[in-house]
Design goal:
The protein is α/β, with parallel strands linked by helices. The protein is built from nine helices and eleven strands. It has a six-stranded mixed beta sheet with strand order 3-8-7-4-5-6. The longest helix is centred in the C-terminal third of the chain and has 14 residues.
């Protein structure tokens, strides 16, 4: 089967450069982008039911830009003035630099890992005395709190936002040769929007082990998985799949 159309369940890349665009040009494929999930912040009233005292904490663990957005949002809504002494431990340099949107970057104590919670935990080991706040979503990956518990950090989890299904009703009569997913939430959204979805000849691509598990758990056929040794990126895995299909 020749692949002619792909739907990527993520926002459209910013700018004109993306490996997806290169893939589309190379194989003359239509690639569309559409987030299957969206993030909604919880309000101050719901936050207070968690009985989390932000003032008790001396450091914040930020695993994404979204986590940073909602930490400062809920601080403002609850009239909590974030002290200048607050330390920030960010999952990556990109998240650390994003803090310039909210604070005077050079005057604060900001630390970052290189992309994983394990790497960030290594940075945090030098700051074991801190009481950490972990702003997160309602479907936080288990590896994050598990790593913090294993390393015996003193931390409090605060759910500040939730992931919900986006409205995809306008796609009801639209067909794609490949659907690309990056989280179990994307699979859940697919069935919430289209309870009678039948895969038939549609290929499904999944990034990461938890997403792949969600595909199989919902009795779907997993045609493309990434990362793997021959293709560390989703684009690379899709290209390998396209090449295989062209041979048939």
């Amino acid at each position: 089967m020749a692949i002619k159309s792909i739907l990527v369940s993520q926002p459209k890349p910013e700018g004109d450069k993306s490996p997806y665009y290169d893939l589309a040009d190379k194989y003359k494929i239509k690639i569309d982008f559409r987030p299957f999930i969206k993030v909604e912040g919880i309000d101050a009233k719901e936050f207070r039911t968690q009985k989390v005292n932000m003032a008790e904490h001396t450091a914040v663990i930020l695993t994404s830009k979204i986590a940073a957005d909602h930490f400062f949002r809920i601080a403002e809504e609850t009239r909590f003035e974030v002290p200048e002494s607050m330390k920030y431990f960010c999952i990556s340099e990109a998240v650390a630099k994003y803090l310039q949107k909210f604070i005077a970057y050079r005057k604060r104590k900001i630390f970052h890992g290189t992309q994983t919670i394990e790497q960030l935990a290594d940075v945090m080991k030098k700051h074991k005395q801190e009481k950490y706040l972990l702003p997160c979503t309602d479907i936080l990956r288990d590896s994050i709190p598990e790593t913090l518990i294993d390393q015996k950090f003193n931390f409090t989890k605060a759910v500040l936002y939730r992931t919900v299904a986006a409205d995809l009703s306008d796609l009801e009569d639209v067909y794609y040769d490949v659907l690309v997913f990056f989280s179990p939430g994307g699979i859940e959204s697919l069935f919430k929007n289209f309870p009678d979805f039948k895969q038939n000849t549609t290929a499904i691509a999944a990034f990461g082990a938890t997403t792949a598990s969600a595909v199989l758990r919902n009795k779907l056929r997993l045609d493309v998985s990434a990362p793997h040794p021959k293709a560390p990126s989703m684009v690379g895995a899709i290209e390998l799949f396209i090449k295989e299909q062209l041979k048939k």
